[in-house]
Amino acid sequence: MGGVGKTELAIQYARKYYDDYSGGICWLNVRDTNLAAEIIQFIQQKMRLEVPQKDIQENPLTLEEQVAWCWQNWQPPQGLVLVILDDVTEYKEIKKLLPRTDNQRFKLLITTRQRGLDTNLVDITLDILSEDEALSLLRGILGEEDKRIDKELETAKDLCKWLGYLPLGLELVGRYLVEDADLSIADMLEELQEERLNNEAINPESDDLENTEMTARLGVQAAFNLTWEKLEKKTREVGELLSLFNPNEIAWEYVESVSESLSWKKKDVKNAKKLLHGRNVIKRLEEGEASYQIHPLIREFLKVKLQASVQANEFKQAFTDTFIEIGETISKTPTLEFRNSVKNAIPHFTEVLENHLDGVSDENLYWAFYDIGRFYQEQGLYALAQPWYEQCLSTVRSRLGENHPDFGMSLNKLAAIYQCQGKYSAAEPLFIQALQLIKQQLGQNHSRFAVSLNYLARLYSEQGKYSAAEPLFIQALQLTKQLLGKTHPRFALGLNNLASLYESQGKYEQAEPLYIEALESYEQQLGKNHTLVAQCLNNLAYLYNKMGRYEQAEPLYIQALQLRKQLLGENHPSYANSLNNLACLYDNQGKHEQAEPLYIQALQLRKQLLGENHPHTASSINNLACLYYNQGKYEQAEPLYIQALELRKQLLGINHPHTATSLNNLALLYSNQGKYEQAESLCIQALQLRKKLFGENHPDTASIFNNLACLYDNQGKYEKAEPLYIQALQLTKQLQGENHPDTAGSLNNLAYFYKNMGKYEQAEPLYIQALEIVEQIFGETHPDTVLYRNNLEYLREKKGESEG
Hints:
Blueprint: H1 6-16, E1 25-29, H2 35-47, H3 63-72, E2 81-88, H4 91-94, E3 106-112, H5 131-142, H6 148-151, H7 153-162, H8 167-179, H9 185-195, H10 206-210, H11 220-228, H12 233-242, E4 250-251, H13 252-261, H14 266-278, E5 283-284, E6 291-293, H15 296-307, H16 312-328, H17 336-342, H18 346-355, H19 362-377, H20 382-400, H21 405-420, H22 424-442, H23 447-462, H24 466-484, H25 489-504, H26 508-526, H27 531-547, H28 550-568, H29 573-588, H30 592-610, H31 615-630, H32 634-652, H33 657-672, H34 676-694, H35 699-714, H36 718-736, H37 741-756, H38 760-778, H39 783-803
Parallel strand pairs: 1-2, 2-3
Antiparallel strand pairs: 4-6, 5-6
Helix pairs in contact: 2-3, 5-8, 7-9, 12-14, 12-15, 13-16, 16-18, 19-20, 20-21, 21-22, 21-23, 22-23, 23-24, 24-25, 25-26, 26-27, 27-28, 28-29, 29-30, 30-31, 31-32, 32-33, 33-34, 34-35, 35-36, 36-37, 37-38, 38-39
């Protein structure tokens, strides 16, 4: 393409190998000249030969015959000759004027903006410079004494990048900086970004270049214009359309989609692509399937041409509509196949949202931002999703106003992405604001109001604020029942949400019938072969797993696994979730040999489908580490716990509940290994983090109080351990109630502590109380029931021995 340095390279070659061409070097400018006349003039002036006008029979010689005479009578008569033809546009027209191919004396060097001039010629493609080469060129132009690049190195890199590392652009800007020693690189870049190709540094008058040492005699815009003028109308229109795309990678299928909406003939578009590629306006990507790239400055040139076109608005609208339509097809299924199907469209979809929002209808405005936010959110890329939801909120506010229902939904989506990242203090006020707005706009008897109630309730449930969550879940469920009826999927979802809350509170008897009703509702509405049915089977199995009803849990987990395999296939995140859940069940039962291959399969599948850097992948790594920990395989568990912790820090941030969980797990491992200093530091860090996230009054905070107490207990620091055991018990009773498995666990831990201290009288009532709770909740045969009963019997034996 123009400006890449073809002419300069030809000059450098001629200088370097001057001595090899003892027969001379002939330089001919080809563009817009009469080449035959140029050759004849060269011979006459340089060799002082009179070119004959007639043959020996006095017949007039054609120009072609006169040129052939020139090559035959070249002086000196011996030695290699280098003929340089600069800026060839139509090789077929000049081919007959070149030395015969069987004459080995003449070597041709041709510069051109076109690809594949002739199959008999060897192409040497010149690419743009690397960043280091560009900086080196710029330094060379400014001179050693100029220190601006050193002082503003990062800005200089940005300048080179803006110029696309194009030698012509770098030379012109370098020359401009030389002329104004007070102009900073930052100011130069700012001027370019503001004025684009109209900036005088890269768009000088040709007269200004005559007295310079530069090879080029045209500015960037003028150089590109030479190619543009050779293109026919439809090819120019396709070029103008291309300026709307992100220039880094353009899948040609998207160009065809936009052109189809413009009613262009596919044949014309295909021919335009061939011509644009042949003229180096676009570059084919080797790794891309029918994908192309546009140099940044060429794109700027094409944008200028588009702005001057009477069809500009039509092109922009077609481009916008096409990618809004593609955005609507973005699936909620976060598989690798899904990501690959739309990832090449995302940069162009981004162009729409950043530069062509005026073409997006009010109806599509919220959904356009939702689609791209969801694309990143489903991959666990919450930090990338957040700015889109923030922009969604600000754009909907400015265009539609705060009294539009989509503004309330925008608040909900932004709050939800904050919640995903553990930013509860940022999420809560947005959820509340959304709820109040929707109530004000649509009233309390609207389905969107029920949706907002569920959003806020889920936040409170995740924070352990069960008393705040329960009435919201119930209100949402009743409203959904009233508006949509008991036969609507949203009613089943509401049942599931409320059941999940009761499960978290240890109210298993209240949770079970709700899960069963939700399952039956989904089966009735959607049939037994549906993904939501599989989800309900999974939830009910999870409840039975927690209740120790393993025989009931296992067939449900297996049924959910098989259903997901049938409906979604084995290469799907939900199938990986089922593998993981079944592994957890076997792990809880002590069936480690059955659990391990399932955990490993789930981990491998999540890596394949979601990538190495995904929160679900981190969870799988953590679960596998827990399995090894439970088996006492600490050396295998440790690197996995550390990997999960680092991943969660990277993906979710340090201030996230899952990060706190990883800190706590690693602390327990170190405690069991006798690495008490490391364990204590991590445990305290986890405790502080959970206090920060949830406050003192949260079940997870109580759990860490208990773990820290165990750590001190193991070290013989009984004075530190006892108040923490007591604090954990009191907090669990307060939050979970007297009859909760966690309360039983805390009672058992404190009793165990007193037993080891020889305080049997204090330990016995605690053991009895713990046993009564688990017998009531789990029954006689649950592992916890058996454990607590054994603990009580052992205590009574020790007590009897001490009394005897």
